[in-house]
Amino acid sequence: MRVYLPSTLPALARAVATGELGPAPLTGFAVTPALVEWYASGDTEELEYVALSEAAKASLRMLAADVADGVAVPARRVVVAAEVPDTAVLVSPDLDDRGRVRLLASVPLADLASVHVDEAAAALEIAEAVAALPAADAGDDDAQFTVDGADGHELLWYATQEIPDLLEEPPG
User: Under a CB-based contact definition with an 8 Å cutoff, are residues 1 and 159 in contact?
Assistant: First the structure.
């Protein structure tokens, strides 16, 4: 099963250092029966894009958690796509969690299919979205507009062999 895992650049660097994404359990997003039912008219490619987009939103929240903890983190969303055995994936029966899944095991780097990352030029708007999250969660429509603006940036695709180069890029 193709699973999209939210991450950050420092978390990706840790995964490279340890040889795996983990520890389990991990939250990811995939084309689940609930997602297919909710997005009835989409083909597989469209459904995978929805799962990738949900993972990008979760990555934004990971960035916000790091910032709240005082961690200096580049303001770029990261989503790691991995091929994992169906037996390692727990699909939520809750229809509100449409594409959310739980991985029951760490993901070896060899199972990664690609990495998707904001371009460095998006860093300012991503940082603004991270800063606006608490107000958006409290119901501020202007803050929600700022958070939604992050979705306007397409994540760039990187092959797994490009990860070392990606991690050496200036933060933006």
Answer: no
- List of residues 6+ apart from 115 with CB closer than 8 A: 12, 78, 79, 80, 81, 157, 158, 160, 162, 163, 166
Output helix, strand, coil percentages for the chain, rounded to the nearest 5: 50, 20, 25
In the chain, domain spans: 2-120+154-161
Q: Measured between alpha carbons, how far is 37 from 98 in angstroms, rounded to an integer? A: 9
**pLDDT per residue as tens digits for the range 51-91:** 999 999 999 999 999 999 998 899 999 999 999 998 999 88
Task: Give the tokens for residue 156.
Answer: 């760039």
Residue 125 parent element (H or E): helix 123-137
Per residue in 96-133, pLDDT (tens digit) is 677 889 999 999 999 999 999 999 999 999 999 999 99
Q: What are phi and psi of 40, to 5 degrees?
A: -55, -30
Which residue is associated with the tokens 């999209």? 4
The torsion region of residue 68 among left (phi > 0), alpha (psi -120 to 50) and beta comes to: alpha
Nearest to 105 by CA among 25, 29, 28, 27: 25
Nearest to 119 by CA among 164, 170, 62: 170
CA distances from 85 to 19, 77, 107, 126 (A): 18, 25, 10, 33
